[in-house]
Give the backbone structure.
Amino acid sequence: MTGSRIARSQVEGPSPVTVISAEQIEAEGFVSVNDALKTLTQNFGAVQNELNSAGGFTPNGSPVNLRGLGPGRTLLLINGRRAADYPFPYNGQSNFQNFGNIPTAAVDRIELVAGGASAIYGSDAVAGVVNVILKKNYEGNVLQLRTGTTTTGGGDYLDLQWVGGKTGDNWSITYALQKFNDETVYAYQRDFMDSRADNPLPDADIGPVPVSTLRISRTNTNTPNTYFAPPSGTCDRFGGEYVDYTFRTRYSATSPLAGQIYTLGNACGYWTDVGYQSIANGNDDYAGYLFANLDLSNGMELWASAQAYYSKSDLTGGLEAILGPHTDGVGVTQTFFATNPTINSNVTVQRILTPQEVGGIEATQQKFTEKSLDVAVGARGSFGDRFDWDFTLGRADYKADRTRPRLDGSAVTDWFFGQRLNTTGTPRYLINLDRWYSPLTPEQYRGMSSILKYDAHSWVNQASFVLSGDLFELPAGPLGFAAVVEGTSQGYKLRSPEGILPTNRTVYNLTGTNGGGERDRYAIGAEFRIPVFSMLNLSLSGRWDKYDDVTNVDDAKTWGAGIEFRPLDTLLFRGNYATSFKAPDMHFVYNEGSGSFSNVLDTYRCLNAGLVAGSSACATTTYTYSVFATSRGEPTLEEEQGKSWSAGLVWDITDSMSVSADYYDIRLEGAVTTLSSTFILDAEGGCLTGLTRNRQPYQFASGSAFCQEILSRVTRTEAPGEPTDRVTGIRSGPVNQAYQRVTGIDAAFNWRLDTDRLGDFRWQVAWTHTIKSQRQTFATDPLEANWRDDPGNFDFRSRVRGSVGWSLDDWSANVFATRYGSLPNWQETGRIAPYIVWNVNVGKEITENLDLTLFVNNVFNKFHPEDAGYNTYPYFWRAYSPMGREISAQVEYKF
């Protein structure tokens, strides 16, 4: 059982273990392992997904975020061995393991230990361990075909599996093959997110507003007629995508006319640009699995396994936008002086391309090719009639290639803006208005763009020797023992196109990262299970990990202790305490340089103007604008350190009914976090003005070491006509600072009822509730003691999953539900309602060898709970799926 290397007769031990069988995955309606894991109640933390990450660094990866502690703090094991990291780093910064490349056909069960387990498994087992156990000793053959679609539009898929095996007197072989294919789904296929008119909270007087897609506007704020109107008929030339629109807005809080409406002017509006991004990736996946073992006459068993995965996927983040001239090595200049006689002003511009210009929405797609291979060989046996041994050698290898189309910065500038007309001060350009107001042809787009190619590779080689058994007899029973010796070599290499690197930046409005490095680790550990008397057992575990890399980790020592008290055969009281650690993610260490764009508040400008930072007065483009930030790896990082404990009970009320409840408490210190642009600019503003965002006294003096470090991270450039120099660069980076703590309750109920006339029933319910969540980003920050209820925290406070299964003669059925707890509303004025999704299926055994099952997932076609204030696209929180009701049919044939 996951969580211990000591063989045990009881299923339940000192740490709660959640088990999902392959049969349960199918009965609850899921096609993939990741879909099932997303419903685990302990998995309540927010992650990027296919809905919102199409333009990000890992749009084809599927992370898990147990307890809301972060995707990289859950360890993925395959048959007890570490899986290779996903080759592309999460958010371009940290590493995680992909739960989306595990073939469902090969899975026997999934075991989850939620909580620190580093004393057993080493680094990364901070929030928990997910151990995927693959099939072995299988007899027979099963061919399974499932196909389905969504009732809302798109999402057709096919899943074909063949699982088989043969066993002999002293050998067995098990194999599984799987092909999965589904189509890309776009936002325009959902009427609640296909247009900017879907905004549920437009300005009460102005109404829904399209994006001003083809515009040239003065940089002056609070000035009517800011937009330079395009020539008559311009908007009609873009294939019906653009509309003529008169844009209006309100005077800002700094104006004497604050709140009143004024007209910006005419421009081309774009309602449907948001619909041209994918909300579900298209996939064409192939997977295979093979396991074989041979029992030798001397009691030794030899075994070997291989798991392979090959995938081709596509997705898109939508259409590119032109935001200004581009300078190689510097990037896009969003504010410049247009010398055209009809303009002659500092301006900003915007033009979002149309599908017709690029050659169809398919021409915007990113393409992924992923290959992973996990092979292992081993031997196991026993000696002395008391001890078992197990030796394993394994290698997990993961390669990923990515391509995407993107405009070239110089080509865009040459076509629309020409050469820069000055060398100092605000850049000056003569806009080619004929080209600006004319649609591109697909040939012209291809002429000024290229296909960018990325490739990434990660791997882990590992060897382990485990010795377990009973050391000697104690009055209350044998002293259980297990010892492990491990060696691991881990590495990765990431190569992005040269043109997107922070040092080059020749690609238009896109950045990326490179990196690569290796790490060796050696570990020894031991466990003891100590029977104190007939009703009481204690567990002790300890582990020492030695690191050979460039970081300051060097080594880490972890330990754990558990207690099992059984006053009755049917009642268990249990408790567990464990320390844990996480070595710095390799890309946090070996990142050769990454960059990112974000809209941030220039806190210093805002405070210098006598305003309160974050107020509506600072929401204008004078104070809030796009800034480029860079980050590099930091070899001096130290390990994150965790402590966790749990206590609870398991009660077998009857032979067929049981209930469990456990309290958990997890603390993490020194967590690696990246200094955000917002934090750095707030600190810079404090150091320069002596004030916080709310104009309270700042805690650090301007000459302090902290302020000297912060000021060195911000680059400002002269900006004539603006209140202060403009921020043109921020140097970010990872640091050991954060503190996190989460406490809560896990509970579960299981009941099996067998009847003669009405059939057999099975009830399963699991519930997780967060009692307290705390965090502290930096040691100088106050502790956010009520982070659980903070309006900025979008982790679910509670999760419930439950199912009712029924079978009678040749018929079977299952009803599954998952409940998401409430979340803050987008306006941070309250909370939105909980949300429940129901899955139903009915099956019939047609013959002894042939079964037919019909599935309806998301029976009531629910998309997201109502949030009337969510005025940012896609107008609902990313944790909710926009796919809607899915219907499918499955045929299974045994031979």
About this structure: The chain is about 10% helix and 50% strand. The chain has a mean pLDDT of 92.
